[in-house]
Design goal:
Number of helices: 14
Strand content: 5-15%
Strand order of the largest sheet: 4-10-9-8-7-5-6
CATH topology of the largest domain: Aspartate Aminotransferase, domain 2
Structural class: alpha/beta
Shape: globular
Number of strands: 14
Distance between the termini: 26 Å
CATH superfamily of the largest domain: Type I PLP-dependent aspartate aminotransferase-like (Major domain)
Bound molecules: pyridoxal-5'-phosphate
Largest sheet: 7 strands, mixed
Radius of gyration: 22 Å
């Protein structure tokens, strides 16, 4: 690494955000000092250029990219073939709503849906809009009013997706009056398990809550439209649900005539080493939400797939804003799926995931590591303080800061976790190198504590 992180050029750029961006005012000098061991998830680095497995910041530092454009670059940064497909689409079509590429991509997508059981597709611009469209579709199709969702879930930044995301007191403040149709249920990830309960017992409790507590004490069974679930808590920390939980959800939906909506915006399209995360559980949802990976990290494209009777003729539900299914987005999607096929990228993700899992298992030896989890290339580590008077997330911050100094970029957005999303075609040596550098950071902080480093909090455009 050529400079301290952030280097002078990056710092100067970050300074420009203080009077400019949302929350710029929160980043006063005092705030920077107070956060000297921290960083804000995607700050400290301003990307100067990106290629394949790497990004470079404004000061010329190179990083192995586990951040992956917030898990949107399955074929690595700035893949030239995706870029040129997008460029051709721009030249040929400009922007129009109806064009052949939207038919071609939808045909390809329904072919790869789990069990080929979701033959209809509807385009959206972002994962947020796609999740909202799935919710609205479920309400309109079932003619019911409630959606069950989960604590720690993340479905986006729209108004309704904020409401169905896991309740975080501050984030959803002033939205209290809007939550009418949303029921939040516990998601059985290991950090949530009450003392004295095994994971299986807690899964049973969570399923009992869905099938008994909600219908008996909150909302009539026949007024619940759907359960909206991530088959892997993505933004919530890359937690991986048990087989019995996902299968249990499917069984409850069948029994109660509720729809199962799988939000695979982050877990889908090979991230977990299968095309869809639900395939690990042998479960087929009624509606599947897709985004991120779909367009190879180059141009927005998202959507939902659903069963014929749900999406085939439902005049009440409407969706698809102006830029849903742009020629460029569809061209990116088509080229990305072609690359998946050509290079067997889902298989490759499973292979790389196994390598990573084996390496990361060894990290349990460090006191600061609470849990290591992987499902293919959906990879997360949660950290804990080995001493009483320091918060767990300080350690995640310190380790992530040290990782930057070592030349590895991963996500830890004010949380106890560090999350990694390598590209599905990452070079094996880059993956190994990135993990080795991450282990050095863990071992360093494990040995020296979290009060090291000097990595202030800076605003960015987020
Ligand atoms: C599971 C899930 N759903 C929806 C979204 C929202 O997608 P977008 O940011 O493209 O709107 C995300 C984004 O991280 C996600 O992880």
């Amino acid at each position: 690494m050529s400079t301290k992180i952030p280097g002078e050029k990056s710092k100067a750029m970050l300074q420009r955000g203080i009077p400019l961006f949302r929350n710029g005012l929160r980043y006063s000098e005092e705030c920077q000092k107070a956060a000297r061991r921290g960083y804000r998830g995607n700050s400290q680095i301003i990307v100067d250029r990106a290629k394949g497995d790497f990004i470079w910041d404004l000061d010329g530092n190179r990083y192995i990219d586990f951040q992956n454009g917030w898990a949107t670059n399955p074929v690595g940064n700035a893949h030239p073939e995706v870029i040129s497909a997008v460029h051709e689409a721009h030249k040929r079509y400009g922007f129009h709503y109806d064009h052949p590429l939207r038919y071609e991509l939808a045909e390809k997508l329904v072919e790869i849906m789990p069990g080929k059981a979701l033959p209809r597709f509807s385009y959206e611009v972002s994962g947020t809009e796609a999740a909202e469209s799935a919710i609205h579709l479920a309400l309109c199709y079932t003619k019911r009013r409630y959606i069950i969702t989960f604590s720690s879930a993340y479905h986006g930044e729209g108004l309704s997706t904020k409401l169905v995301s896991g309740y975080d007191g501050d984030k959803n403040r002033y939205l209290e009056a809007w939550t009418g149709g949303v029921i939040h249920a516990p998601y059985p990830y290991s950090d949530n398990i009450p003392a004295g309960m095994s994971e299986e017992q807690y899964v049973e409790y969570c399923l009992w809550y869905l099938d008994n507590h909600i219908p008996n004490s909150m909302v009539p069974r026949d007024n619940i439209a759907a359960i909206l679930i991530e088959p892997g808590l993505a933004e919530g920390g890359n937690w991986i649900p048990s087989d019995s939980f996902l299968k249990g959800i499917r069984a409850l939906c069948d029994k109660n005539d509720w729809l199962m909506i799988a939000d695979e915006v982050l877990t889908g399209l090979g991230r977990t080493g299968k095309m869809w995360a639900v395939e690990h559980y042998d479960v087929v949802p009624d509606i599947l939400v897709v985004g991120k990976n779909l367009s190879g990290g180059i141009e927005p494209c998202a959507g939902i797939a659903a069963r014929d009777e749900i999406l085939g003729d439902n005049p009440l539900s409407s969706s698809g804003s102006t830029f849903a299914g742009t020629p460029a987005g569809c061209a990116a999607g088509l080229k990305t799926l072609e690359l998946y096929e050509r290079y067997d990228l889902v298989e490759n993700a499973a292979r790389l995931g196994n390598i990573a899992a084996e390496i990361m298992q060894g990290w349990k030896q460090y006191d600061v590591v609470r849990q290591v989890r992987t499902n293919g290339l959906l990879m997360g580590v949660s950290f804990q303080s080995p001493v009483e008077d320091q918060k767990d997330w300080y350690f995640a911050r310190a380790i992530r800061s040290r990782m930057l100094e070592n030349g590895v970029w991963a996500i830890s957005d004010q949380e106890v976790n560090i999350r990694m999303y390598p590209a599905l075609n990452m070079d094996e040596s880059a993956l190994r190198d990135g993990l080795a550098k991450m282990e050095e950071a863990i071992s360093f902080v494990d040995c020296h504590g979290q009060a090291v480093g000097d990595s202030p909090d800076w605003p960015t455009g987020t």
